[in-house]
């Protein structure tokens, strides 16, 4: 952000920025509005000054037609759709337009995304399971566009406020539920190990088993990526032998549906032969056969929190960054029962 | 649109509109930009003149940061999410921002929606299973904002171009598939009867049975609303007696999942005791247990067509309105088999 020597010297005017960057006021204006006709080198120099001097943007078109940008991983997944719907409800009440973009497979936006954002001058950006490079973050900062993350995967950046849910508690709740039903043979299929949410859920699983004095079997901790395919494949691997678990905690509802398929392929009945707990509580969980016991992630409340943070950060860019975790709860349905019940 | 006497006299300038509406140029500008400070009566008068004289809006902010508005029924439903994802892919390629709004339960937007749209000045509006009142349509026309509908439910408005899919063919394909497998006891659960898509699918069902010389049993045509609940309830009603169908064609994948639940509740195996065909081919269809045979609705292609239409209509507002139907196809999976197989 600021170079150490520069510090914060109050907010600069347009003409001060132009002088500091050795360009015309028109050029600063072009950079601010994301217009073409400015070389990459000049744009970087102007943005560095904007960043450094915390330029105080005047009200522009966006104050009469305010926008918020949502960058979402897998927008047509049940998780992405639920998060977008949660944000939409809040923006609708506030009279704000919600611009939605999907990410590429890498959780990063398309390279041209930042150009559109700078032109649209939104009040803020909300990331849903999406990631931004430091270069893109710097550009957003230089345009005074705050970024808030929902449920970040991977270690949250220290300079981006985020809204998460209590992942460790969720993992603990799911596993404790199975133990209370009488299961001691409980396996887990995890999410990607570079996502903090996965690690926290796994850690909650371990803690619940520890608390019950049940040893953890390494071969029953299977890696996954929240996807249907890994639920199916790891489900088959876990359930194929005689020495199999009586319960599986999957780290997403979609992954749990993959476990359902694996059980069906092996002729195992849920919940008689196998209890399954999912994670997320998407609409598909209650439609699954049997209706799925799962951990409820309060996406609607998380979206509301994220929007509140964006609004506050837009008004007070100096607001201390922070993290909020919303509580998770267990929703018991028909996919869990006592072992052999 | 135009009053008969007025006709088309070429496009008016801002000052001509002001003179005709007996207001200042500043007032016309406020109306064009959706700003406050104009009475409802004055706004209506100015918009009537804009409509009548086909005012030629100059390039504004939106030409450098173009937007398209998507108004979608049930944005967190699998269908809504798939449509939004299809539109997003096209807008991303074209460097256009996609603003997403959900509808109220009535398929209509929130009353304040139109104010936001007028302020944002999008290149166009795409409706996904959503409806607009004539009053709202008139306001959009007066601001030169074209409207395109995706898969309209109910009779398509004669003055709104729309992109649909071949619903009659879909119903015919689904039913023919069951007949070819050897079923003659084929029931249907329909969508809402005020939606043209439902009527066309039902009509395709009837035509396929007729073509095979199979009489239609009225008690096997059950009304539904594309929802899980009606799939479950009508499924139970159809399957509870001894004189039950061996196959059910559900008018949506979600509804078909409700039929799955009904079959499970009655101890019937799919496909051994009952074949089920869904409609839409959402991601959840292939994850269902068993993987669902369904009619594929080409949402990605429909979204692309809708965006092309919006772009063309924005450039050529006089373009003759038209309807495009994209082909549906049958995707055979594991929920259908010969009766008693």
Automatic annotation (TrEMBL), chains A, B:
Residues 12-66 form the HTH lacI-type domain. Keywords: DNA-binding, Transcription, Transcription regulation. Gene3D superfamilies: 3.40.50.2300, lambda repressor-like DNA-binding domains. The keyword DNA-binding applies. GO terms for molecular function: DNA binding. PROSITE patterns: HTH_LACI_1, HTH_LACI_2. This is LacI family DNA-binding transcriptional regulator.
């Amino acid at each position: 952000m600021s170079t150490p020597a520069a510090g914060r010297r109050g907010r600069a005017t347009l003409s001060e920025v132009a002088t500091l960057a050795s360009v015309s006021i028109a050029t600063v204006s072009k950079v601010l509005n994301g217009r073409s006709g400015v070389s990459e080198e000049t744009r970087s120099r102007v943005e560095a000054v904007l960043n450094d001097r915390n330029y105080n943007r005047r009200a522009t078109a966006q104050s009469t037609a305010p926008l918020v940008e949502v960058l979402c991983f897998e927008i047509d997944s049940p998780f992405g759709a639920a998060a977008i719907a949660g944000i939409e409800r809040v923006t609708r009440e506030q009279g704000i337009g919600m611009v939605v973009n999907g990410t590429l497979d890498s959780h990063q936006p398309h390279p041209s995304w930042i150009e559109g954002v700078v032109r649209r001058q939104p009040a803020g950006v909300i990331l849903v399971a999406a990631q931004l490079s430091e270069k893109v973050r710097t550009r957003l900062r230089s345009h005074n566009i705050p970024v808030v993350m929902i449920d970040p995967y991977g270690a949250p950046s220290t300079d981006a406020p985020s809204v998460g849910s209590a992942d460790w508690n969720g993992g603990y709740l799911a596993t404790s539920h199975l133990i209370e039903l009488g299961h001691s043979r409980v396996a887990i299929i995890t999410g990607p190990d570079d996502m903090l949410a996965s690690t926290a859920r796994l850690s909650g699983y371990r803690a619940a088993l520890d608390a019950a004095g049940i040893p953890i079997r390494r071969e029953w901790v299977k890696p996954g990526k929240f996807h249907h395919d890994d639920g199916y494949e790891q489900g088959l691997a876990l359930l194929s032998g005689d020495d199999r678990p009586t319960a599986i905690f999957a780290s997403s509802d979609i992954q749990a549906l993959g476990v359902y398929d694996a059980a069906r392929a092996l002729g195992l009945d849920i919940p008689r032969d196998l209890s399954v707990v999912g994670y997320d509580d998407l609409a598909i969980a209650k439609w699954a056969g049997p209706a799925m016991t799962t951990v409820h992630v309060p996406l609607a409340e998380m979206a509301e929190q994220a929007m509140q943070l964006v609004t506050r950060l837009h008004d007070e860019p100096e607001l201390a960054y922070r993290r909020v975790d919303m509580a998770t709860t267990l929703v018991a349905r028909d996919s869990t029962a006592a072992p052999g019940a």
